[in-house]
Structures are given as C-alpha cells and as structure tokens.
Amino acid sequence: MNGCGRAFVAVLRRDLVIGFRHRSELGNPVVFNIIVALLFIFALGNDPVILGRLAAAIIWVCAVLASTLSLERLFTPDYEDGTLEQLLLSAQPLPLLVAAKILAHWLLCGLPLVVAALLLGVLLYLPQPGYPPLLLTLLLGTPVFSLLGALLAALTVGLRGSGVLLALLILPLYIPVLIFAVAAVSDAVHGLSIAGQIYFLASLFVLALTLLPFATAATLRLRLG
Amino acid sequence: MNDPSGNALEIRALQCVRGDAVLFSGLDAAVNAGEILQIDGANGSGKTSLLRILSGLARPESGDVLWHGRSVFALGPEYHMHLHYVGHGNAIKLDLTVWENLQFMRDLGVVPGPDLEEVLARLRLRAHRHVPARRLSAGQRRRLALARLLVSPSMLWILDEPFTSLDADGRALVAELVGRHCRDGGMTAVATHQPLAPASAIPTHGINLS
Fold first, then answer.
1. Beta partners for B15?
2. In this complex, do B57 and A88 lie within 8 Å of one another by their Cβ atoms?
C-alpha cells in the first residue's frame, strides 16, 4: 500500500477503535432517534392508518435530528489534543485524511441510524412497499449528512457552544435530502415510480463526496491558521 | 534546487499580530543543517505563534518563511514532509495504548523510521506498551508525544517547550535526541527557557522575543 492509502486506513482505523472504546456514547444518537419516534406514537395514538401514512416523514425527521447530535465530536477532540495540527502537517493530502474521518463518522453514527430506521418502520406500521426505498434513501442520504456536517463542524471547531450553533446551521441544509427522500418512500407506497427522487439523491451524494472533503480541508486550514 | 539565499530555513521580516497587539515584527533569522534555532521570551511574547508560523500552520501578518528559497506557505505538503512539529498539545489519543499511538504516528509519516520497539526503548516506555495513554503520567505522555520525532525521520524538528513535565532524565534525553539529530545533519527550532545543548558545541542561533 502506498503512503496515501496507509494514512487513510490509519485514520479510519484509529477513529473506529476510539469510537468502539466509547460504546455508550456511540449508542446515544440511536436511542435518541428511537425515543423521538416513540414520542410521536404516544402523541398520535397507536392508529395503524395514521401512523402508516406518516411513518416515512417521522422516520426521516428522527434520523435528521439524531444525526446532528454526533457532529460536534467529529473534529473537537482532535482539535483539543493537538491531533488536528498533526493531520494538517501530514505530508499526505488533507482531503484524503478528512474523508477517512468522515467515513469513520458515517460507519459509527450514520449506519446505526439506517438500521434503527428499519426497526422504526415496524413500530410505525410502514406499508411493506415502503421498505426498499426507505433503505435506499437512507443509504444515500445519511452519507450526505456526514459530509455536510463535516464542513460545518470544521467551520465551528474551537468555538464555545458550537454544538447548538452547529445544529442550527446544519438543519436547513438537510431539507433537500429530506424532501426527496420522504417523497420517494410515499410515492413507492402508492405504487408510483421513484426513479427521479433516487437519481436526485444519488447526484447529491456524488456531489457531496467529490466536493466537501476538499472544502472541509480548506476550512480546517483557515480555522487553525 | 533553486536556492539563491543558501539557507535551508530562512525567516524574512516576519510580523505577527494577535488582536490589536503586535507580537513581533521585522524578525529575521536563518537556520542550516546541523544548527539549532532557540527561541526565548517571556510568556505571551509569541513563541508558540512564531513556531506555528515556522511550521506553516499559521500565516504571518507580513514577511515570509523560506525553505531552500521557496515560501513554505506555497510548498504545503512538500514542506510538511520534511518537518516534525511537537506543540503544546501532545497530540496523542488517551483512549489508545502507547503502542497504538506509535503505530498511528508511523502510518502518517512519509518514510517509516526505526523499529517501534527501538523507539519505545529509547523513550523508556517499553514497560507501558499496552497501557492506555490515559493511565500515563504527564511526563510519560510528553515522552510519547516526542516519539513522533523518532518513528519517522525528518530534516526539521519544531519543538514547543519540549521539556514541559519532563524529569531530569527526560530533559537529558531530549537534549541528547536534539544533539544527535543536529550532528546527523538535521536542524531544530525550539522554544524553551532552558539551554538545550550546553556542552555539545552545536551552532545555536538565538531569538529573544521579549
């Protein structure tokens, strides 16, 4: 493996190992996600017709809210102990190292939300045809959340009270993903084609994947300079 | 390499401003292979700021830092591959063991250096190999931070108060490491109040910021 690949794997493995050594912290967004969904069930009543119609929207809003919780931890620990300076001074390209951190973040925080969403589908009486598009939109949408979140986490790293600020800044940016993802699931339930929404989400994902690691790297250099 | 000045690392008319205060201005210096640049000054006089500018992390208000005649801010990673920076923060992960921290430092480096076992022995951390860094003392954490100097070779060492928390034994070790590095043709920029290598006759340039 060349230097770039070795550094990418090193950052990815390090963040995953540290994540697994804080297992309790790791589970918090998922638990939050499930509790918010349960609040909806208590508020709306356990009516299969009403819940089934709202299931896609509830699941997606819960995923959006839960995914903002973990963003602050993306760069702050590395900023505080000086590791971020070392990453900036690495001879390897910074966007690559940032991409490794984002991938680790998605594996630790995004993927569990995808699994939890399928469980919530059962609780919320999501109609059977809704599951494949729900899974697909979450697999395309949650990486966009991690990539966008990384940019804003880099922008607010080192600020006091950055957690709430980060949530306020990031939530509006999630709206396009939310609109197209929920539309895809409810269209599928009604037997309509969802190709348009899926292509849109896929293009958002590719756009985010190609641009945001570079933007995040540049933002980190500015913030620490 | 195009090198009109003939100096490996050169500071030209450097000015650093923090808020409204000018920390230093019109700073000139040069370091060559085998030499030490020792930066002294009162607390808050800008030692860390100067080292961060030297490493290319921060940009000066005006002036430039040249590596073999080219601005380090334009060189980027091409310059970073020649330097190691040990700052105020130890940049070690407290959740990882000593060994895992060393592996990470090595994997980020360009050229793998000596065996990690050898590094552990030189820093006297061998007995703590599988201990999480959280359970190390402050001095042992500082030793682990300094390990990045050894896990992969590099030309320029930039050290910010390397003696912090170290015992007499550790301070002697740092002085010995820097001495050997410079005798082998490396160079070191260091912010410290203590004389680094008194008897070893390494050419030392001094900057006093206060």
1. B62
2. yes
A175–chain B nearest CA distance, Å: 35
Geometric angle at alpha carbon B190, from B188 and B191, rounded to 5°: 170
Distance, in Å, from the CA atom of B59 to the CA atom of A75, rounded to the nearest integer, reads 21
Indicate the number of domains in chain A. Answer: 1
ipTM field: 0.90
Nearest C-alpha neighbor of B176 from the set B152, B140, B146, B154: B146
Low-confidence ranges of chain A (pLDDT < 70): 1
pTM for this model (two decimals): 0.92
> d(Cα B121, Cα B123) in Å, to the nearest integer?
5
Measure B58 CA to nearest chain A CA, in Å.
4
Query: Which of A74, A67, A70, A66 lies closest to A150 in space, CA to CA?
Result: A74
Burial label for B200, CB within 10 Å (0-12, 13-18, 19+), is middle
Among A8, A11, A14, the strongest candidate for a mutation testing the B interface, having the largest count of B CBs within 10 A, is A14
For position B122, what pLDDT does the model report? 87
* DSSP category for residue B128: G
Domain that holds residue A86: 3-224
Chain A CB contacts of B138 under 8 Å are none
- Domains in chain B, please, with CATH? 33-41+76-208 (3.40.50.300)
B86 forms beta bridges with B159
What is the identity of the amino acid at B97? T
- Give whole-number Cα distances, A81 to A84, A222, B15, B90, B122, in Å: 8, 18, 27, 6, 24
Question: What is the average pLDDT across B59-64?
Answer: 90
When CB atoms are compared, the residue of A7, A93, A225 closest to B108 is A7
